[in-house]
Predict the structure.
Amino acid sequence: MKQRGFLVGVAAVVCWVCLPVAGAAEERGAPPAAEVPPPPTLPGPITEADLVQPEVVIREEGENMVTEYRVGGKTYLIKVTPPRGEPYYLIDRHGDGAFERLPGGAPTAPPMWVIKTWK
């Protein structure tokens, strides 16, 4: 019970000290708050026309079959299928033209193409 009485006393002292300070700030005429601008409009839903389909080019290079996947003129994935053995993949992870070789099988990286862009 003594602790509760002590807490009530501390709360009363804090209020007694803080209320005059808050009132003094109001009397000094604090600057008015700036108006908040309205939120930007959201784009509409993604439609079939917004989806970007990769351009696929299949060509032979020597004995190898080379399949290139491009979006917006940039090649992001190359699949090389030799006449014997497993195919391997060259992938441009960062879009800088530096391809990394992945061993056979499907690429383990998630799809990394642009779905929608705004101007």
Q: What stands out?
A: The chain has one helix and five strands. Strands lie at 55-61, 64-71, 74-81, 88-91, 100-102. Residues 45 and 88 are 37 Å apart (CA to CA). The chain has a mean pLDDT of 78.
